[in-house]
TrEMBL record:
InterPro entries: Surf1/Shy1 (IPR002994), Surf1/Surf4 (IPR045214)
PROSITE patterns to which the protein is assigned, alphabetical: SURF1
Protein name per Swiss-Prot or TrEMBL: SURF1-like protein
Positions in coiled-coil regions: none
Length: 272
C-alpha cells in the first residue's frame, strides 16, 4: 500500500524533510537566544543609565578593560580639556542618521591622568580630508558627566581601523591608541558626555541608547518552529494524496480493463 515510499523520489523527499526539521529547530532557538540577549541588554542599559553618577576613577583606570556590567554607567570627571590632542572619529551618524564625526577630547584630570570624552557629533568636512569645524571645548577646569563605554575594537564594532588617515582623524575610540599619541596615562574606555549641555547644542550629544525595543527575534523564533511543525504535517498530506491518486488510478485501470457487453447481443436475446 505504501511501497511507493521506497521510490527514489520519496526517499529524497523524506531525507530533505529529516534535514529541515532539526535545522529549523536550531534556527528557532538561535533567534530565541538573540531575543533573550536583547532583553538582558535592555535591562542592563536601563539599570545603568538610571544609576547615580560616581567619579570615573572608581570605574576604570589606565589599561582597564571596561566590563559589560559597567557599560553606560554614569560617571563624573573633573579636569581641563587638552584641545591640542583633540581628534575626530570618522563615519559616525547622529540621531537623524546623518553621517559626520564624533569629537573626541582628552580631559586631563587633577592627578595628570587623562580620560577620553566623546563630546558629541558634528558634520564632517566637505572633502573628507580636512579637519571639520569643531566647536571649542570649554576652557579652564570643568566637571562633566558621561556614560562609560568600553574601548572600541574592530572585532567588537566591525569598523576597520584604517591607516593613513588625515591628521587628527581616527576610526575607533581606543584609549591605548590615544595614550600613545598624547604621551600620558589614559583611563581605559571613554565617556559619552551627557552633561553639561554644550553652548548652541553643538556638538550634538550622543542620545541615550535604546532600551525599549526588543526587535522581532521572538516572532522569528516562533515562525521557524511553525515551519518545523509544517514539515511532517506537509509530508503526511503528500503521502495521503499520493496514496489516493494511486488508488484512483488503479481503480480506473480495473474499470477500463473489464469486458464490455455487446448491445446487439442483448437485443437478440428472446424474452420469456
Amino acid at each position: 500500500m505504501y511501497r511507493f515510499l521506497l521510490s527514489r523520489q520519496w526517499v529524497i523527499l523524506t531525507l530533505i524533510g529529516l534535514v529541515l526539521v532539526p535545522t529549523m529547530i536550531e534556527l528557532g532557538f538561535w533567534q530565541f537566544h538573540r531575543h533573550e540577549r536583547r532583553v538582558a541588554q535592555n535591562a542592563l542599559i536601563a539599570d545603568s543609565v538610571a544609576a547615580k553618577p560616581v567619579p570615573v576613577e572608581e570605574l576604570t583606570s589606565p589599561g582597564h578593560t571596561v566590563p559589560r556590567a559597567d557599560y553606560w554607567k554614569p560617571a563624573t570627571a573633573t579636569g581641563t580639556f587638552d584641545t591640542a590632542h583633540e581628534v575626530v572619529v570618522r563615519r559616525r551618524t547622529n540621531s537623524d542618521d546623518r553621517v559626520g564625526v564624533h569629537v573626541l577630547s582628552p580631559l586631563v584630570l587633577r592627578d595628570g591622568r587623562v580620560v577620553l570624552v566623546n563630546r558629541g557629533w558634528v558634520p564632517a568636512a566637505a572633502d573628507q580630508h580636512s579637519f571639520p569645524a569643531v566647536p571649542p571645548a570649554p576652557r579652564g577646569e570643568v566637571t562633566i558627566t558621561g556614560r562609560l563605554k568600553a574601548d572600541e575594537t574592530t572585532g567588537a564594532s566591525g569598523i576597520k581601523d584604517l591607516k593613513g588617515l588625515p591628521a587628527r582623524q581616527v576610526m575607533l575610540i581606543n584609549s591605548a591608541q590615544q595614550a600613545e599619541l598624547i604621551g600620558r596615562e589614559v583611563l581605559g574606555g571613554y565617556l559619552e558626555q551627557i552633561a553639561p549641555e554644550p553652548a548652541g547644542n553643538t556638538p550634538e550629544l550622543i542620545p541615550e541608547p535604546d532600551h525599549d525595543s526588543i526587535g522581532a527575534h521572538m516572532a522569528y523564533a516562533v515562525q521557524w518552529w511553525l515551519f518545523t511543525a509544517g514539515v511532517p504535517v506537509g509530508w503526511v498530506i503528500l503521502v495521503r494524496r499520493e496514496k489516493r491518486d494511486r488508488a484512483a488510478a488503479a481503480a480506473g485501470a480495473d474499470t477500463s480493463g473489464a469486458p464490455e457487453r455487446d448491445p446487439d447481443a442483448i437485443q437478440a436475446t428472446p424474452s420469456r
